[in-house]
Amino acid sequence: MSDGLENVVAAETVLSDVDGLAGRLVIRGLPLSALAGSVPYEAALALLWDGFFPELPGDLAPALGAARRDVFDQLAPHLDAAADQPVFDGMRSLVSRMEDGTGLDAALRLVAAPAVALASLLARRKGLAPSAPNPALGHSADILRMANGTVTEEQALGLDSYLVTVIDHGLNASTFAARVVASTQAGLGSSVLAALGALKGPLHGGAPGPVLDMLDAIGTPGNAASWIAAELTRGERLMGFGHRIYRVRDPRADALNAAIGRLRASGAVDAARMDLATTVETTALAALARHKPDRPLQTNVEFYTALLLEALGFPRDSFTAVFAAGRVGGWIAHSREQAASGRLIRPKSRYIGPVPREAA
Ligand code: ACO
Hints:
- This protein is an all-alpha fold.
- It has two domains: about 15-205 and about 315-340, Citrate Synthase, domain 1, CATH 1.10.580; about 210-310, CATH 1.10.230.10.
- Helices cover about 55% and strands about 5% of the residues.
- It is built from 16 helices and three strands.
- Strand 2 and strand 3 (about 30) form a beta hairpin.
- The two termini are about 25 Å apart.
- The relative contact order is 0.16.
- Acetyl coenzyme *A binds near residues 4, 203, 238 and 244.
């Protein structure tokens, strides 16, 4: 029995490999550094899905654009009801309207749905008129345009870098949830909904919003050391640090930091915010090393996610939904891979409750 299934190998995959000691993430044979910042989300999706859909076109952009348009038409009548909920829950309720197929059309609609739902909900909150997707635009550019009314090339590149960076990451909690459901031969929609539930929690995809709450609470670089020490003394966890697999720096943090650097060069990043973040990161790493000398706790993907998504204009309560819009590509690939294995995932539990009198 392994608490939290730590170190348990529960699947074989050709999709991604997380080397927690070397700090390396490989996606279908390529290091993350060869993808993030270099290819659009559609290209990373085509790489990940290669071999899992017989009719996969080389360029997924037109088909994904058409799926965004179709999904928008389907979801538009339900936006009002979804807008009454927190963004992630509203997005999830809209995604639950997708059909439960297993083919490429169903898969593309499931990638389009979180993106269209998120962008439409954010636009509505800003009081913008609903804007139908433009299938001629790239996925990232269209999400930002629908959400904000406008988009620059640098912003689209920044969101592409983010969505590619988080597209897949081994057997994380949400991907495992997707694979468990896929192993029952339920459709892709059911797998994606299970994964969304797992992603929501602060120990998985819900951390980046609280990272900004932490920066706000610290306020100025001079307060970092005392604030962090007080949190650790109270037994609190510092959001954006620590990981089940990585014992060194999460390579995704560097990919996102590079994307922030490109945005910074175009003047889209608040320099004071970045200076504060740099001090907080350095101070937190030193404090965590003293606090848990036996457990290397390094910066994880969520720390830089928070800074990048804030610079792209996403409100902090939408960060987990943006994460879902990227990771959904990985959930679908894993679901196809698991379903193809044909093996139901069904581990055992050890009973530690009271035994009936006659058996005692
Ligand atoms: N701040 C302070 N202490 C920490 C932190 C942290 N961020 N992370 C772990 N620790 C401590 C734990 O309290 C624990 O101490 P204990 O042994 O005295 O109880 C010890 O380090 C080991 O922690 P575990 O919970 O066993 O580590 P696990 O592998 O389960 O945790 C996790 C990984 C959940 C990410 C954890 O590091 C954490 O809670 N981080 C903060 C939340 C966060 O950033 N989440 C995003 C993760 S990235 C992603 O999922 C996309």
